[in-house]
Amino acid sequence: MKKLLIAFLISTTGFLNAQQMAFNFVEITAKENSQDKIAELFDEFFGERERKSGGVFLERLRHGREDGRTHRIVFLWELDNGGWVTMPSEAEGDAFWRGIRNHVESWGSARAGRIMNLHPGDTEKYPTIHIWDIKSGDPKAFAAAQVELVNNSNGAFDGRTVAFGTYDVNKPNGATHWALVAGEDLNDHMSLYQELQTTHSKAFYKYIEDRGEAVQIHDFIVERLKTYQ
Questions:
Q1: CA distance 197 to 191
Q2: What's the mean per-residue pLDDT of the chain?
């Protein structure tokens, strides 16, 4: 599989300047031992189908998951340019979702928003993503501070996806925005934070100061299982 970003290929990063990217995800509780079956259904339905923009992702919820949810299904698209290049038939779509429902114990919250800032990375190498739900007092300052941190940390974020964006529909516990960084695994995330707070402490604490008021609501980790572009 191609080396893909948290949301899309490196070549699409320019969309953030010209075209706004949006996302929609729904959390699910998968039946026991059903992850591989769900992944197979995703491969069969999404694997060979080209989308106009963005992508579809299957992610496993790890640390910080709530209400017994186990996975989430994420759709990403360029506003006013979403959907398929060639639309699947109604029968194909019905068969896919019927198959998914057979392996889902219950459905959770669906949320939607936009991506405001993206430093692209390689989610084959860094498939574990730490996400913070926050209330941001100054989103523009937060986005600018995030960019500056990435650029002034002497390569600490090389290969890692780093992003920031909004929650616009069904905000989780009142969070207005989210921020994320990708890593190899839990230990790799801890090592990154240690490096930022010691080796790159000047850049890190400048980021904390420059990003403005930011109240953390919740944080959690997802593992990217499948990516379809």
A1: 10
A2: 92
